[in-house]
Amino acid sequence: MFTLDALVNNRSLELRILEPGPPGALREPATWVHNTELPDPSPYLRERELVLTNGLWQEQVSPEEFVAHVKRARAAGIVYGLRAETPRTPPALVAACRAAGLPLLEISQAIPFTAVSQAVSGMYADERQQGVIGMVRRGDALATAISRGAGASGVLRVLTRDHDLPLAVVDRMGRLLAASGTELDSAQLQIVAAGLSRRPPALELDLGGGHAALFPVGALGDADAALICLRPLAELPAAERDALEQAARFLSLEVARQQAVQAIEMRFAGELLEMVLSGGRRASEVASRLQAFGVDPAGALAVCTLAFADEAAAAHSLVKTATDHAPAKPVTVHDSAKTAAERDRDLAKTATEHGLAEVIGEFLADEGVPAVVAGGTNDVVALLTWRHPEDELPVLAERLVERVARRFPGRRPVAGLGSVAAHAGDLRQPLLQSREACRVLRRTPGGPAVRGFRELGTHRLLLGLVDQATLSAFARDLLAPLRAHDAQRRSDLEPTLRAFLDHDGQWAATAAALHVHVNTLRNRLTRVTELTGRDVGRVEDLVDLFLALTIDAME
Q: What CATH number belongs to 468-554?
């Protein structure tokens, strides 16, 4: 855009101000020039155009009427061109512009209107050129900031060199990554996180103290963060919007870099868990891996496993929904037959677990506790240096669960704890204990949020003392005939046995839960007895079946 002041300052146009209009009117932006001699040009004028006229309309309308029409179209002003027939601007036109508050300029006979059009075109060309140069210069500065590891703060520093804007960068977890010229409280951060979770993400939000424009930042299409400007989108000039959009694209590179680093760290952390669990030769690599993460393998180590309890409830609800639609026989849900909704739920679950790992890592970093955080299939495990009494570990876990609950409203996080290992070589048992404690908590509606393995049932403590390979072989051998039968005949013997044990061996309650007749239930359990050699009517045999299923769930 251009201003009337800029045209007046161009001495080659020989423009003279006859009426400046209201204070600041000559510095207001104008969009273009419009040459007209129509008595009423308002239907053809765009807002903020500058009217060029020789006054030929005076034979049809008065200056007051012409000015009223121009004013109604919200034009930027009038340039009156002198001619041999009218060597002086009509005083009535000057008076009308003064009364209407409309700027009026006069141009000499020697200068054609095309000179004004050319001058405006040159201004636009210069503006575009400066915009391109500015974008290239800013792009170079942003690229330099990213390549040197300045991160989101470096991007904001580049932006604020040219634009005095209140800015912040907030990720999808509601964490403030950087800020310049503003502060966001926890409530505002949660509003931003909620806006980014929408599909598509919000582009403007009411943060309580006013509206803010959001420029989404995404590495792989989804909004992983947002560049926030604490001004409404409509109030941002095009140049500022362009700069913010450019900065958001560069922030996407930074997010992609961080995600790549996190993915590598998570993969190495996952491999570390496998090494701990496998034992044997690979166990010798655990110490070096822990050192790479800044964890002392020679010192005491604790294991904390977190998950969301409602995930187990959701799985139970899915099975119940399936059985509700088939009263005669429970339905087994197979991965190969998953619906699009189920696949979306799996993707959302994976994203949530990744976010959970981020929150856990952030909490432990804030607490100054060196740790390795790894996402498992159904949980997230933290291996951490522990230099305090063991009875203080649940206190830390309680605070961690509270942090997670605040970041994931509506979810119920639980944490299972194992015993403290004296060094890296003793991690396997505490890891198994921690995961088993977490699994039990997930399956306990309304139960405690944090528990240690020693606080669980006695049978789990006893199982924890037995070699895992021996337990696995026992469970595998006992359950193998049931699983082979179910796979070959598409029957439900194992789910039926699980339901029977879950309902404490009550026939009527189990039959009702499975939506089958009690006789059908008896027939199935008779078949279980034939295949396993364990009679569900004998306590000793029932204990074997119960332990086999418990061991299977612990693996």
A: 1.10.10.2840
Phi, psi of 450 (to 5 degrees): -135, 130
- Enumerate residues 6+ apart whose C-beta is below 8 A from 100: 67, 68, 71
Q: CATH 3.40.1390.20 region(s) of the chain? A: 2-111
Supply the DSSP symbol for 445: T
**Domain covering 129-257: architecture:** 2-Layer Sandwich (3.30)
CA–CA separation, 555 and 553 (whole Å): 6
pLDDT tens by residue, 266-317: 777 878 888 887 766 666 788 888 888 888 889 999 999 999 986 444 343 3
Task: Please report, for the chain, how many H helices and E strands are present, in that order.
Answer: 18, 17
What is the dihedral angle through the alpha carbons of 478, 480, 483, 484, rounded to the nearest 10 degrees?
-140
Residue 391 · residue 398 · CB < 8 Å? no
Nearest-CA neighbor of 55 among 43, 67, 44? 67
> Regarding the domain with residue range 2-111, which homologous superfamily does it belong to in the CATH classification?
HprK N-terminal domain-like (3.40.1390.20)
Helix (H) or strand (E) holding 228: strand 225-229
**Residue 549 CA, distance from chain mean position:** 38
Residues of the chain with CATH 1.10.10.2840: 468-554
Q: β-strands 49-53, 2-3: how paired?
A: unpaired
- List phi, psi (to 5°) of 168: -155, 155
- Yes or no: is domain 279-460 CATH 3.40.50.1980? no
Contact by Cβ (8 Å): 30, 3: yes
Tokens of 9: 């300052």
Q: Tell if the pTM clears 0.85, that is, is over it.
A: no
Whole-number Cα distances in Å, 359 to 266, 349, 402 = 13, 15, 11
Coil/strand/helix, residue 387: coil
**402-461 pLDDT, tens per residue?**
999 988 888 889 999 989 999 988 888 898 889 888 888 887 777 789 988 877 765 655
Strand order in the sheet with 380-385: 371-375, 380-385, 301-308, 413-417, 450-452
Numbered ranges of CATH 3.30.450.40 in the chain: 129-257
- Nearest to 1, CA basis, from 33, 23, 24, 25: 33
- DSSP per residue, 254-311: HHHHHHHHHHHHHHHHHHHHHHHHH-GGGGGGHHHHHHHTT--TTS-EEEEEEEEHHH
Which regions of the chain carry the CATH code 3.30.70.270?
279-460
